[in-house]
Amino acid sequence: MLRSVSTFFLLIIIVSISSCAFTNRTSRDFLVESMDEPYDIVVVPGVPLEGDSWSQTMKARVYWSKYLFDAGIAKNIMYSGSSVYTPYYEAKVMAMFAEAIGIPKQNIFVETKAEHSTENIYYSYKKAKLIGFKRIALASDPFQTKLLKRFTRKKVSEHIGLIPIVLDTLRAMEPVMIDPKLDFTEAFNKNFVSLVERETFWERLRGTRGLKLDETAYQ
Questions:
Q1: What whole-number distance in Å separates Cα of residue 12 and Cα of residue 17?
Q2: Which letter does DSSP use for residue 144 in this model?
Q3: What are the sequence ranges of the domains in the chain?
Q4: pLDDT tens, 71-81?
């Protein structure tokens, strides 16, 4: 297990040194900045469930959210993601893992409408504001966080914080990481139809670019 996790971190590092991702130094600067005042809630974009366990990407995002919660940076966590490519709601699956590794259930929220990364932050922000949360941040891997920065600040809110994963901090958590065995029945969508079957490539591309947002959601 440790070997596969280490391999994942190596891949993340390679991606992170490219212009398409925040560097580890920049990610750390964001983390330090986030320590000034706790966020009411931190949004974590979803990842599809692979088989009967979590992928390394999902594991990294959930454990990073736990780090932020344990450090007092995030008072609550919201996982976002519909059943996009598999019959399981990504947000619900991640919430189950989060609870299994120690985040209290009362501090976990889910948003199950989003089918694209742009929708993850858009719908989660709207739902969080509807619930009553004020200080909101986005937390994901360095690649996705940088990819969403412009959209988030321009289309959602310029006040949303960004907390990309700090790779060496996450790597230090490896020895205590666990792989819970869970029953995902409650996360199953019986009416599931894959996004690939529902939308053309061009429709999916529009969604990825944030051009198919439902502005009436969570009002």
A1: 9
A2: H
A3: 23-208
A4: 999 999 999 99
Q: Quick one: pLDDT at residue 1? A: 44
* Mean pLDDT, residues 129-148: 96
pLDDT, greater one: 52 or 136:
136
Helices 201-208 and 117-131 pack at an angle, to 10 degrees, of: 50
pLDDT digits (tens, 9 = 90+) for 2-30: 444 455 555 555 444 455 788 989 989 98
Q: HSE, CB side, 13 Å, CA atoms: give it for residue 9.
A: 19
**Alpha-carbon separation of residue 161 from 62, 94, 114, 184, 186 (angstroms):** 18, 21, 20, 31, 31
The CATH class of the 23-208 domain is alpha beta
DSSP 68-106: HHHTTSBS-EEEE--SSSSSB-HHHHHHHHHHHTT--GG
Among the listed residues 115, 108, 126, the one whose alpha carbon sits nearest the alpha carbon of residue 62:
108
